[in-house]
Amino acid sequence: MKQRNLSSEFGRRCGHCGFAIRPSANFCGGCGRSKTLSSATDQNALTFLQSKVPSQLAERILHSGGAMSGERKHVTVLFADVRGSTALIDKLDPEEALEILGPVLQVLMDATHQHDGFVNQARGDGIMALFGAPIATEDHAVQACRAAIAMRAGIDELNRRRSGDISLRIGMNSGDVVIHSIGSNLVMNYDAVGKTVHLAARMEELAASDAIMLTAAAHKLAEGFI
Fold it and tell me: What structural domains does the chain harbor?
């Protein structure tokens, strides 16, 4: 019996959580972190994100009571990234890369914030966002879908202005997550893990260019509204 080569099928393991990452995936399916861009680029993206969190949103979050470490929340998780970003910035240093991708991140973040979502992780080429936590909303799947549609429209407008050809792929899933922690550093400390996150990342991985892919769980919550 021929033994399967798991290392070639799954690529390598995430340096943060040890999850086996498929070669075609840009995000780790365990913790949602990027595998494709340099740590310097990702750190620049995090710094960029921290500077762009609207003060009113930060105030709402800090006054919402937060969450205790290990608390379960029912949310919709959304992943969005630039398809083919590695080739786009392959020969650029992190600062030059963020110059190109910064406006893209801004579009993704603005769409998330406008629909009561929270960008809890940023990478050089995309974001992970939560809807339903830390600000609790009953229609989190609907808001996530509306944010995804706004993201795609925003990138279309950005392409028109810059004569560009950037395309997104977006995936989402609804379900229970376990919250790590929340503190004064909103970006770094509020995080969610679990099967729900994994499936959302998998939807993003499977999505075609300019496509929005959602699981049956997210579709059930949003059906009739989107």
Answer: 38-222 (3.30.70.1230)
Measured in whole angstroms, how far is the alpha carbon of residue 164 from the centre of its chain?
22
What is the four-CA torsion angle of 181, 56, 139, 71, rounded to 10 degrees? Answer: 10
* Neighbouring residues of 208: CB distance < 8 A, sequence distance ≥ 6: 169
In this structure, which amino acid lies at residue 157?
A: E
Confidence of residue 7 (pLDDT cuts 50, 70, 90): very low
Tokens of 86: 């590695």
pLDDT value for 46: 47
Q: What is the Cβ-side half-sphere exposure of residue 95, based on CA atoms within 13 angstroms?
A: 0
- Residues linked to residue 117 through DSSP beta bridges, in sequence order: 131
Dihedral of the alpha carbons of 148, 207, 188, 146, in degrees to the nearest 10: 10
Q: What region, left, alpha or beta, does residue 9 occupy, with left being phi > 0 and alpha being psi -120 to 50 degrees? A: alpha
What CA–CA distance (Å, rounded) separates 109 from 164? 19
Name the pTM for this structure: 0.73
